[in-house]
Description:
By secondary structure, the protein is an alpha+beta fold. It folds into 2 domains: about 1-65, no CATH class; about 80-270, Glucose Permease (Domain IIA) (Distorted Sandwich). Helix content is about 20%, strand content about 30%. The protein is built from 7 helices and 16 strands. Strands 11-7-8-9-13-5-2-15 form an 8-stranded antiparallel beta sheet, with no helix packed on it.
Amino acid sequence: MDKLSVTMKPHFVKWILGGLSSTLEGFSKSNYSRVLIPLYKRFFDVNTEEARIPQKGFDSLEGFFTRKLIQGARPFDDKEKTLVSPVDGILNTYTVDEKAQFKVKGKVYSLADLFKDKSEYENYLKGWVLIFYLSPSNYHRIHMPLAAKEIRSYTRGGFSYPVNDFGLKNFSDVLTKNRRLVSHFENSGSVFTMISLGALNVNSIVRSHDENRFYKKAQEYGYFSFGSTVMLFFPRESIEFSREDGPIKQGETLGKYKAKGSLKKAAFYNRKVKL
């Protein structure tokens, strides 16, 4: 009986969370949900003075959640080599070891589980992982940390557990199992990767533009229909940090990008690997 309970537990949790999130998602998109916007604003202390509010107001709770900002609300350093935050949130910085692993809140995560192919992450061994956790009060649109050309992108993963302290501590492999959009970019002959993770089975990671295009720094890349997490991966020698972990806003400076194209280009960059 104990073995059966242990086996059934993950499926039971998925069933409960899946039903709950599907209900919330459907309701948040309806016009009926707009009555909850004032309550949501007060409860999560959302700063609406910086929001671009439609003439007739937001038509749903989701519309409020995915709100755009007024011009100039997120200033940034436009110097070519200045690396800026892609989102609002809480920043935590980690390093990848020689085994392609990194540890978050006592749990070990493997790049082999996060990506499809080893060629995607070989330049990130002993490199940097920047994780941005978004809360319900944050601005939920994702912007580019650098001007760059998108090389490849794909989605991976299925069910999405909560990406918060509770989820990270109580569910296994949240960061490497959740539904995610993996986006590879090239700048100055080197590569970096941005991963957008879904949360609570609300896998609505929406792109703002077509795939494989050139982006300006701070240009909008996409948005979350509900909150989650963004991860950035860089080769170790390509970044010089000037920012400590903690609260951060989109556009604020993270450090200096120093890549000069001396790194080996991954096989997928040369179209040798089908992703």
